[in-house]
């Protein structure tokens, strides 16, 4: 039996925020807006709708959808219903999507209407339930917007699996990474502290292909603190600037390639980004020329570099604005719930200035590979081997050197 008085799941994050920030804006995307009270009710309706289709705890639900409030709602509904969320960004190649659908064997697929033909072309097993994510009156997002609010299922334990993440970009490892509620709740708390998330930051989330980092390290933490979040999937710089102005955004997450394009765009001046005071970038961070341009155009903008592989819920280290100016190429310091060492081939700690592999111990770590969750490889003493090779600096910071695959560990 689940100890609901002491358990903490991802579904609880929105519930707590709804109690504290009920009528505050929570999420806006594609012309729809949600207060925290409204988002919490919608998550409960969507979770109940999925269970009413016959899904059960632990069933996998693939989500083939654009980055929008509908995709966010699908993730939160899976969390509250005890289902396993399997995201498939629309940029995924056909062979990657086919592998995801075959390997994860989802009990259901949620798909945006304009992506349905592509999914049908690839094919899903005949027993798989296919549901609309958005776009029609029976879709998940429309079902969630109205009607009575059902009681929630409080029997989901915090060690239950919540997400299967596939490496659909590099193809380095075809196995999925399985993350639990516990891993993502701890990552959320780590991010709130390391990124100094504040209710008044008004973050804009440009999610796109970087969904795990966007979701784990930015959106969930900002939902936890009661911020007004805007979500978009555009990669067009002019549209991003328009969304910044429209949302009066104070914080923005972009991958390095989009920050670089923004810096190279002659239309970007301080007046375009006057509301921004926090710039979040995933590792390896911004190239120095782009960083210099953005600092000149927006002197008040504080830069954070966020590093972390999916195995540790996309968040292991953060380089803060206070240290960014003097150490722009550093990965920063471990976050709250990550214990980290840098070791040599024998497992001994390396000295300052020396190079070694990063190993972790953390409640944020994944609990296995694939739907069956085969146990992750661990080194001596229960430390997880990341494959990231770094140099220990004299001030405790870390500088990445390279990464090698699991086959070379």
Report on the structure:
By secondary structure, this protein is an alpha/beta fold. It has a single domain (10-333), classed as Rossmann fold (3-Layer(aba) Sandwich), CATH 3.40.50.12780. It is built from 12 helices and 20 strands. The chain has a 9-stranded mixed beta sheet with strand order 2-1-10-9-11-12-13-14-15, sandwiched between helices. Strand 19 (384-392) and strand 20 (398-403) form a beta hairpin. Helix 1 runs antiparallel to helix 2. It starts with 9 loop residues before the first helix and ends in a 6-residue tail after the last strand.
Domain tally: 1
- The CATH topology is given as Rossmann fold
The appropriate CATH architecture is 3-Layer(aba) Sandwich
Structural class: alpha/beta
**Overall average pLDDT:** 89
- Order of strands, main sheet, comes to 2-1-10-9-11-12-13-14-15
Shape, please? globular
Helix content: 25-40%
Largest sheet: 9 strands, mixed
- The CATH homologous superfamily is called ANL, N-terminal domain
Total strands: 20
Roughly what fraction of the amino acids lie in strands?
Answer: 15-25%
Number of helices: 12
Low-confidence stretches: 405-409
| CATH first level | Alpha Beta
First and last CA, distance: 39 Å
């Amino acid at each position: 039996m689940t100890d609901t008085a002491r358990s903490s799941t991802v579904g609880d994050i929105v519930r707590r925020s709804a109690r504290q920030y009920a009528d505050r804006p929570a999420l806006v995307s594609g012309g729809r807006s949600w207060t925290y009270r409204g988002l919490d009710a919608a998550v409960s309706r969507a979770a109940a709708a999925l269970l009413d289709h016959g899904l059960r705890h632990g069933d996998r639900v693939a989500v083939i959808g654009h980055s929008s409030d509908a995709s966010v709602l699908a993730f939160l509904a899976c969390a509250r219903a005890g289902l396993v969320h399997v995201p498939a960004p629309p940029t995924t190649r056909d062979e990657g999507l086919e592998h995801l659908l075959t390997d994860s064997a989802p009990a259901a697929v949620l798909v945006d209407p304009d992506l349905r033909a592509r999914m049908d072309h690839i094919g899903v097993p005949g027993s798989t339930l296919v549901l609309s994510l958005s776009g029609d009156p029976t879709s998940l997002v429309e079902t969630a917007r109205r009607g009575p609010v059902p009681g929630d299922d409080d029997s989901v334990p915090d060690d239950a699996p919540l997400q299967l993440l596939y490496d659909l970009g590099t193809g380095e490892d075809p196995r999925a990474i399985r993350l639990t509620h516990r891993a993502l709740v701890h990552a959320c708390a780590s991010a709130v502290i390391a990124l100094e998330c504040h209710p008044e930051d008004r973050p804009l989330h440009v999610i796109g292909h970087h969904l795990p980092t966007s979701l784990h390290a930015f959106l969930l933490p900002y939902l936890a603190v009661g911020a007004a979040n805007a979500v978009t999937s555009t990669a067009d710089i002019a549209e991003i600037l328009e969304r910044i102005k429209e949302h009066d955004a104070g914080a923005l997450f972009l991958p390095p390639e989009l920050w670089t394009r923004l810096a190279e765009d002659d239309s970007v001046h301080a007046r375009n980004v006057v509301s921004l005071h926090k710039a979040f970038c995933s590792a390896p961070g911004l190239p120095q020329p782009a960083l210099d341009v953005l600092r000149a155009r927006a002197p008040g903008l504080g830069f954070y570099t966020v590093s972390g592989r999916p195995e540790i819920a996309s968040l292991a280290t953060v380089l803060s604005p206070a240290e960014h100016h003097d150490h722009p190429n550093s990965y920063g310091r471990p976050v709250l719930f990550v214990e980290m060492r840098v070791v040599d081939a024998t497992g001994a700690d390396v000295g300052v200035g020396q190079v070694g592999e990063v190993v972790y111990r953390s409640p944020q770590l994944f609990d296995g590979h694939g739907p069956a969750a085969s146990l992750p490889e661990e080194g001596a003493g229960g430390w997880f081997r990341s494959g990231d090779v770094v140099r220990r600096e004299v001030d405790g910071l870390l500088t990445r050197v390279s990464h090698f695959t699991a086959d070379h560990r």
